[in-house]
């Protein structure tokens, strides 16, 4: 059971936009602006896509954006491309059982 | 270029011990908190431990507390994870990761630990 809740899967067609949600509590997402998002392709290590809720590391496409409202965060990918097909994990600082927590992951399928 | 290279993963019997290593390069190692994160193949990510820049502060997931110890040698730009009393549920791919504002901006390729008799 992951600390943060994500949908198991989402899908979209090339060129469309999708949003992946990540729900936590006031002890993690709701209490701090330290939400991050990771992209993981099969057989590869996770890659940081968003940190501090909405900041993008250098080199990450501006098609990826993040936001937060209350105890929930979201990752939006616009102009979907085939290479976006991957599993996406949210992460957050937490004052609950562990100082860093993850969601269970969302598999994005580009139709 | 930042690189993190883990090593030490093997097949070990339940109750056994193992030490993982992570060699870092491309950044000022002793400026950063470092983490271990694990992933059972086909499953999600689980944070395991962190260590402060100087090694003075460590923290662990409840699932490994009292059995795992993380350490670092800043003179060698290396991170370690000593794993004792291993259980089958510790079987996973273990990543070392560099901290960035409570997230993880660089990850190694992982080293596979299998606990099995």
How would you portray this structure in words?
The complex is a heterodimer of chains A (about 110) and B (about 120). Chain A is mainly beta and about 110 residues long. Chain A contains no helices and nine strands. In chain A, strands 1, 3, 4, 7, 8 and 9 form a six-stranded mixed sheet that branches. In chain A, strands 2-6-5 form a three-stranded antiparallel sheet, with no helix packed on it. In chain A, a hairpin with a 6-residue loop joins strand 7 and strand 8 (about 100). The radius of gyration of chain A is 13 Å and the shape is globular. Chain B has strands spanning about 5, 10, 20-25, 35-40, 45-50, 60, 70-75, 80-85, 90-100, 105, 110-115. Chain B is globular, with a radius of gyration of 13 Å. The mean pLDDT of chain B is about 95. The chains are: A mainly beta (about 110), B mainly beta (about 120). At the A-B interface, strand 7 and strand 8 of A face strand 5 and strand 10 of B.
Q: What labels would you give this structure?
A:
heterodimer; A: mainly beta; 3-stranded antiparallel sheet; globular; B: 117 residues; mainly beta; 4-stranded antiparallel sheet; 11 strands
